[in-house]
Structure formats: structure tokens, C-alpha cells
């Protein structure tokens, strides 16, 4: 990546002050950050699921894909030969924000097309300087106009506020996205990164970046009916000092080389905090297993219960409590 940067960017344009990219490992790694620090370049990374941060690159990539799709052959093995032409056409397009093409902005002239007639007039240095100053002034004024025109964020949150998070780009274990919840949470804001980005306190089971654009957040309002508040139940503290939570039910399962595991829904918690637990561990909770067998008669049972008559145990009110683990939520599941 560093060699590409030097070959394609630095030799033509010098050292930039900042770069904008997504959080992919190609751009966001220890070597790249150390290199940029030595060169005095400040890397700016987009927030989770907000491609508008680097919207120009996103739109350019879409345009390039469309161009290559139109011109490459059926086998799609000649796409690389079309890249120089695609790059030329892209740089010669007029940008809607600046009103100028990339060529005109950088070089103050449009490149000559092969089929265009030769222009024998050569502008004088003074005229060229004035033309360059005029173009830069026009570009600067156009950019400032579009910045003022952009709609500023209408909402603002404080540290400690609870918010809903849009789940459009978040993978869950439910079979179809169309019937899934549109929002998750509420989650607490723990840090304000900027006017457009906030850091949320997410469950350990959500293995995603915890900084989100403000467009993905909405204010959470407590249910004030009958002075009722939605509060997650605290864990039970055992004599050994361990935390235990109440199991609500089994919602799905997974069988692999490590054996049978159940996806557990914890009482008072939503699906984002489900965890995968060993079936043998859940088999020790007779009330939970009874409900599971009634809801899913064909559902798999742990080896300890197969071909064995289940003995009744006298409940103590603690049979449905156990410690919560944080195993992989995103492994393939069998959902009834």
C-alpha cells in the first residue's frame, strides 16, 4: 500500500495533509498509521455504516464499475485494459460541487482529446497565472456555497443519553431482515466524537465498531405510563461472587464439531444480547428444557438427555439462573 501511495499519489501531488478512507485493514493498520505519522499525514476514517463520509469515492467507484461493466468482454478478463480510459473520462467529468473537472481544478486546463483539432495558441505566463487564480477562486466559492447549503445536523445528544440504533447494516441471527426490528437498544452514549458521530456502550456480544453517525441514532424516550421505567434486571450474585442471569428461553441452536449449542434469550434483555451456551449446561435447567421441547418437538437435545428418562428435580427458584458467556454470536444457526 505504501509503494502504491508513493507511486500513484506522492510523486504527482506531493504529501497530503489528510486522507479519508474506510476502516478496512488495508488503510487502518499499524504500519500505515506509523508511516502517515512520520510523513505528517492525518488519516480520517469513516464512521460505521456511513458511506457519505467518503461519498465522492463511493460514487466514483460506482461510476467506474458501470463503465467497466459496459466495455469489458463477456469473460471479463480485459477490464484492466479499460482502466486508463475510464480514469481519463472520470477526471474529465465536471464535478457538481465545484463546477469544474478534476483536470481543470488541478491543471487549470482541459486535456486535449485525440480527435480534437490542435490549438496553436499558447497562453502567456501572466495570462495563465490569472486564469489559474480565477479558477481557484471559482472552485473555492463553489465549495463554500455547497457547504453552507448542506443541511446541518438537527439533533444533538449528550453523554449519558439513551438512543435507538438503526439496524439496517447490523447482522442479526434472525432468518429474514425484512421482518427484523428496525432499531436496537436503547444504548447509552459514552462519548461525543464530533457533532456527527457518537460512541455507544454496546453489549459484549455485538462485535462491531461502537462509533456511529448521528443519522443512525434517534432519541429514546422512557415509557412514562403509570410511571413505568424499562430497566434491565440486575444479576444475582452467588456466594462465590459470580454474576448469574435468568434464562428466558432457547430461541435457536447450532451443531458443529464442538457439539450442540443453544442460543439463549436472557430474561429482561433483547436479542442483541443473546449468547451461545453449551447444551449440556442448559440441560441442567429442567424448566427451560421443558419449554424448549414443547415449542420445538423436533429440536435437538443434548447427549445427557437423549434416550434417558428425565428425573424430576425440586425447583429452588434458581434453576433458571446461570452465568452468561460471550461466545460467537455470528456463527450459522438453525432457526426453526
UniProtKB/TrEMBL annotation:
> What Gene Ontology terms describe what this protein does at the molecular function level?
RNA binding; RNA-DNA hybrid ribonuclease activity
Cellular component terms (Gene Ontology): nucleus
The UniProt record lists the EC number as 3.1.26.4
The biased composition feature labelled Basic residues covers 306-316
* Top EC group: hydrolase
The UniProt record lists the Integrase catalytic domain at: 1-110
Name of the protein this chain belongs to: Rhizoctonia solani AG1-IB WGS project CAOJ00000000 data, isolate 7/3/14, contig 22384
